[in-house]
Structures are given as C-alpha cells and as structure tokens.
Amino acid sequence: RVITETHYDRQGTEQEKRVTQYDEEGNKLDYLFTYQGRVKAREFYTFNERGDIVEERLLKGAGPESDEYRVDMYKYLQYDEEGNWIKREKYMDGQIDQLHERLIEYD
User: Fold this and answer.
1) Measured between alpha carbons, how far is 90 from 1 in angstroms, rounded to an integer?
2) If phi over 0 gives left and psi between -120 and 50 gives alpha, with beta otherwise, what is residue 61?
3) Is the distance from CB of 21 to CB of 7 less than 8 angstroms?
4) pLDDT tens column, 21-58
5) CB environment 63-73: b (16+ within 10 A), e (fewer)
6) Are residues 69 and 92 in contact, defined by beta-carbon separation less than 8 angstroms?
7) What is the pTM for the complete model shown?
8) Rounded CA gap, 3 and 87, in Å?
9) Which of 25, 42, 79, 89 is the most exposed place for a label (fewest CB within 10 A)?
10) Which region among 28-32, 75-79, 82-86, 87-91 has the lowest average model confidence (pLDDT)?
C-alpha cells in the first residue's frame, strides 16, 4: 500500500509531497519527502518478527548521491503478557540514546 499526500500553493503549484509505502502488515517501509520537486528526506525501516521497528535509516536526499546521516537501532528488552513491548533502548550511531518505557492498560 502506498499513500501519497501532496500540498499545493494558492496558484496550484506543488509545494510538498510525502509518499509512504507500507507492507502487508501495515508497517511503514519507506518514506519520501520532496519540497518544490527536490528530495529533502528519505527514510527506510526494518522490523523484527514481532513487527517492532529494529532499524531506521534516515537519508538526506535520495539516490546514489545521497549521504546517510543517521541510523537508529532499537533493542527490545521486555514485552508484556499480550506480546507488546514495554521497554526498549534506542541507539543512534551505535551509542545508546534513549530508554523507552510504556504502560499499556487493557480492558
């Protein structure tokens, strides 16, 4: 599934375009952002067998001339009884950057 969102100015000229591609499970695989026809950002995502994001590659521009400027990795430390993650670490450029904890209440 691909979703395209386009923004125009008052004269009808395209200003921004966002294109997001999803897999069969609804996971975001690819995101492309252009402004006035120029690629400004591109993101790629990789997921584990549970559907949790494990890698996020954030690129400046698109294509072979692009410079990769950040890779975020996620390590999942704890899951609840429903199989949802409740504790994970985020690494930027190989260094731990954040610890995420969440509480999910079920009915």
Assistant:
1) 27
2) left
3) no
4) 998 888 889 998 888 888 888 888 999 999 999 999 88
5) eeeeeeeeebb
6) no
7) 0.71
8) 30
9) 25
10) 28-32
